[in-house]
Amino acid sequence: MNKKTLPILAGSVILTGLGVYLYASKVEARNYKLETVRVTTYGASGGGSSSGNGNHDENYEKKIFRILHLSDTHLSEPETDKLRFLEEVTDGDFDFVVLTGDVFENYTGLKYASSLLSRKPKLGAYAVLGNHDYYNYSFFNKIVGRINRKWRHPMEYRDVNPMINAMRNNGWDVLLNESRTHAEGVHVVGVDYPGIEPDELTRLVHQSPDGYLKLALFHMPRFLHTFVNAGVDFALGGHTHGGQIRVPGVGALITDSELSRKEASGLIYRGNTVFHISRGLSADPRSNFRLFCPPAATIIEVVHKPHAPHPDHDFVSMDTLRQTSFVD
Ligand SMILES: [Fe+2]
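Above: inputs. Below: predicted complex with fe (ii) ion.
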């Protein structure tokens, strides 16, 4: 290597890195997608005594619900294109719009709460809060906390009442370890970020009338087996941002949760429960960059067949699913 080669090589590496960073933060992080998936849920498990005996026509009492899943909006001043996307997608015709946490990055984002919902959904707009709603993260937390988990979060929660009030004033029902039942055949349970005792989650899910679709909302994918054991049919969460940086063929570099690299977003099957993990629409503004992982909102068509048995291939023993690697 001659004397001229090294500076040229170093310059090329720096320019390439800068180009990738600019693309990831200025282009892909703002390339909002609206995606559609379809989910089928079968029979009751846990939450009620489904007949599930196969004597019913598979389509008998089949119900279809249209859900818009939003997550990780991380609102903070200034916002522009994200608000336009939110206003557009929430103007659609939905049974539910759900928002699974990290709604606000800080109090400056409260002024944008009115852009989170353009039209009232037929059955309800439900939200749960996430760790960025509860914590005011410093650079110290973000950098040192990656090395030593002791410093991962600030010492105290911040007051989330301004967030809850802003949401409620704009048509949202913020669920703080609570449930709601709709006579149309849906029971919704919302898990607050600080968590919930498994017995309490089971109690809330079991308030569902027999045969109703049992939905659960949560922010951080942790202890997913508790949703399975409680008998939830379909659970929606966020937090991972899909990993933000994904390597084709490998998956997310980090999932920041108990999920594997290939499970950082999309549909996941555990026991008789289906999970949808959203890639979310944003991130902490200090680290909002994405590669092969554009931000997304998802329209989910849920077909609930309360009297159809679960297909055998969907069942996996919980013994093989229980994971212990996650620590928040
Ligand atoms: Fe987030």
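Residues 44-56, 314-328 have pLDDT under 50 and may be disordered.
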